[in-house]
TrEMBL record:
Pfam families: PAP2 (PF01569)
Transmembrane region(s): 24-44, 82-101, 108-129, 149-171, 178-199, 205-223, 270-288, 325-342, 349-370, 390-408, 415-433, 445-463
SMART domains reported in the protein's UniProt record: acidPPc
Name of this protein: Phosphatidic acid phosphatase type 2/haloperoxidase domain-containing protein
Species name: Actinoplanes palleronii
Keywords, ordered alphabetically: Membrane, Transmembrane, Transmembrane helix
InterPro entries: PAP2/HPO (IPR000326), PAP2/HPO_sf (IPR036938)
Domain Phosphatidic acid phosphatase type 2/haloperoxidase: 108-220, 348-460
Length: 487
């Protein structure tokens, strides 16, 4: 055998050897994690005294540190929400939707299957073990159900872990340790918050982490087998992500040029536009506060004559459609979907600046004008902010107008006209509900319209949200051409 043949043979065996080494090491790690969870399960199930003493000592010690500090409790509760189903299920659903938009169904299915497994494991084991939650001297939080294992620790380990594996190919090589470190820190903080709040023992959290690692390992191995059987090479280690070839589709905006050319000059223009918009709003607010027209109080009192329990409920729903939570939720859904579809940051920047500017203009103008609410009975009680301008209506008009501007330039299908219709119907509904509930005058609505018209115009001329606008198909094709050219 020649030297060249021996080199070729060694090169041919190298991938096989690396794969075998990784497989053995991975199997050993999974077995160790599984044995650790099984040991904890048995020790908890049979009430091993040293473990019980440690659990109670940690729970009591952290309770003494947290109890009596409202700030600490609120911070811990906020951290804990990042491991709750109310946060993680919408997060996974959003990422799955983005993956499907980017035509990556395999990792999307992996997220769904792995997530469903987490939802089944948690209640099943809690019923099997039946461990009651800690009883501490100064309770600061409560939670339903049994204690072992911690559902937040298990769910956060699985959800944040599987998201890290799926999204890892989109992260640059040098930033991957930091990315994984941030994910790990989130999981640790969630587990710590559950112990500090007194709703779980230390062993509950550790067991949740161990079981989560075992389930992620098993599902990731099944995914790699599926991928290998589909004809993809299995040479990449797990720290390259589950589907390394998906890197181009996972990158947010690979083909986009400068998001905002000359950012300092544009920032100065936006700031000047904000000041001018505030000046217009203050001038109108000062005028209607000092010389209020007669119809300004008459309209809310007239709408009050139509009040019925049914209309009260309907107006409450319309009013909620314009409050901070609804606007924030819609914005948080639209922005990632916009990035997934059009692979451009500029429309997202346009929407973010629109809403940040609306909020700051509303708060500043309301504080400067200080207009009282209408004399009609106010169904929402006394509000801390002044009546002019209407924050609900301004936020609704700004958000739906910005979304309509972005969508109309990038969608060719007839259903795009839904968004201009929403930009009209949603503010009208919110405005009528706010006046019906006695919270605003008609001129407060006029102030919201003026705010939107002036501020969106400023951002239209400075940000140019539709510059280089492309459809979703064109954006995907441009990214693919960029990947081919770079390779």
């Amino acid at each position: 055998m020649t030297e060249d043949n021996r080199v070729v043979e060694r090169a041919g065996w190298a991938p096989v050897r690396r794969f075998a080494e990784r497989s053995v090491l991975g199997l050993i790690a999974v077995i160790a994690v599984g044995l650790g969870f099984a040991a904890l399960l048995l020790l908890v199930r049979f009430h091993w005294s040293p473990l019980q003493s440690l659990d109670h000592a940690v729970a009591d010690g952290l309770n003494h540190q947290v109890a009596g500090s409202e700030t600490k409790v609120k911070v811990l509760q906020q951290i804990s929400t990042f491991g709750g189903r109310g946060f993680m299920i919408p997060l996974v659903a959003l990422v799955v939707t983005i993956l499907l938009i980017r035509r990556r169904p395999r990792p999307a299915l992996y997220l769904v299957v792995t997530g469903i497994g987490a939802m089944i494991l948690d209640p099943s084991l809690k019923v099997l073990v039946g461990r009651v939650r800690p009883v501490v001297e100064s309770p600061v939080a409560t939670a339903p159900g049994n204690s072992f294992p911690s559902g937040h620790a298990l769910g956060s380990m699985i959800v944040w872990g599987m998201l890290a594996l799926v999204l890892l190919p989109a992260v640059r090589q040098r930033w991957r340790p930091l990315f994984l470190g941030v994910v790990g820190l989130i999981v640790v903080l969630i587990g710590f918050s559950r112990i500090a709040l007194g709703v779980h023992f230390l062993s509950d959290v550790v067991a949740g982490w161990l079981l989560g690692i075992a389930w992620i390992s098993a599902s990731a191995y099944a995914f790699r087998v599926w991928r290998r059987e589909s004809g993809h090479p299995d040479e990449n280690p797990i720290h390259e992500g589950l589907e390394p070839e998906a890197a181009a589709d996972l990158k947010i905006a690979a083909n986009e040029e400068a998001v905002l050319p000359h950012p300092w000059a544009k920032g100065a223009e936006i700031l000047v536009g904000w000041v001018l918009t505030f000046g217009l709003l203050y001038l109108l607010g000062y005028s209607v506060t000092r010389w209020s027209p007669g119809f300004d109080d008459a309209v809310p009192r007239w709408l009050q004559t139509f009040r019925t329990p049914e209309l009260d409920k309907i107006s409450w729903g319309w009013s909620k459609a314009g409050d901070t939570h609804a606007i924030l939720i819609i914005s948080l859904i639209f922005c990632p979907l916009a990035l997934a579809l059009w692979r451009q940051w500029r429309p997202v920047l346009f929407l973010v600046l629109t809403m940040v500017g609306e909020l700051t203009l509303f708060l500043t103008t309301a504080a400067a004008v200080g207009r009282p609410r209408p004399e009609a009975e106010q169904l929402d009680g006394v509000m801390p902010t002044s009546s002019f301008p209407s924050g609900h209506i301004a936020a609704t008009i700004c958000m739906w107008t910005a979304i309509a501007i972005v969508v109309m330039a990038r969608v060719r299908q007839p259903w795009r006209w839904i968004f201009p219709a929403l930009a009209v119907l949603m503010p009208v509904g919110v405005a009528l509900s706010r006046m019906y509930r006695g919270m605003h005058h008609p001129t407060d609505v006029l102030g919201a319209v003026l705010l939107t018209a002036a501020w969106v115009s400023v951002l239209w001329w400075t940000v140019r949200p539709n510059a280089h606008a492309v459809t979703a198909t064109e954006a995907a094709q441009a990214d693919r051409e960029l990947v081919v050219a770079s390779s």
